[in-house]
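Consider this one:
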Amino acid sequence: MKYQKILYNKVQCKICPRECILAPNQSGFCYVRNNSGGQIHLQTYGYNTGLAIDPVEKKPLYHFYPGSKVLSFGTLGCNMGCQFCQNWQTTKVKYPIEQCQPAAPEQIVKTAKAYGCKCIAFTYNDPIIFFEYAIETAKLCRQEGIKTIAVTSGYINPEPSKEFFSLMDGANIDLKGFSEDFYRKNCLAHLQPVLDTIKHAVTKTKCSVELTTMLIEGENDQYVEQECKWISENLGDNIPLHFSAFSPKYKFQNREATKFETLEKAYKTAKNIGLKYVYTGNLANIDTSTTYCKNCGKPLIKRDGYNIIENNLEKDACKFCKTKLDGCF
């Protein structure tokens, strides 16, 4: 097993920055990586919470084969401690593995082909913690010409990050807020490892990366300007950035849902800083869900929710001024 360290009768998991030290039969923070016989064992390998066919826009990915079908799946557990988790029923509740659906990587790839899905997405919970399951599935996808997508928090150590993103064709990385205090208090994690992961994926791999920040009013919406400046300075102005709306769940059930005005304000801030591709999600709005040409400013892909209602691309370029649109088309 890669990414582990033996410490006497204990094993240290090296997948993510938590680096949990596990006694025999003990599970990590994620509750699915376990010390079994002196080796890290992924208890959810070959089990998932169900397969679903989604539009790629739901991931959300707007610059990665728009309009294509994606076979999505996730498992149980998470290495983040987000108090506002939107999928807490599977990431926080310790269900017996037997309640999940068995599906080997070969079966998942076979299902994607049978339903004409261009991509397979590792999503719903973080593929970082079902690393081996995702990696083996991704290797088979490469052999079969199927694209792979990771929807992830990016909370992963540098070495496994290299292997992981080398096998991902597309990714949406969750930048939960641009504040160490926010990460420490509300995610039980740290910001810098996430920034390092994002920078590596964007600048050192061929993976097509988009970012999402779910805005929670009064918690992380005040850091949007700093976040956008960091993106511009470290990644460039062509990285798609999505602002999504929070809904009250898990331990944040007493908070108010995000208003569209908050998303719109963040959208305008990002645009003013110079980011070329900015979007709002969860709350449908055609204007702020549309992809515009970075050269002439005309609408290239108009969306109503997850549906494309107008496409002004010729292959991968603006039909008006012929400027190439960044991404995979």
Remarks:
- Residues 93 and 195 are 28 Å apart (CA to CA).
- The chain is about 25% helix and 25% strand.
- Residues 1-43 form one domain.
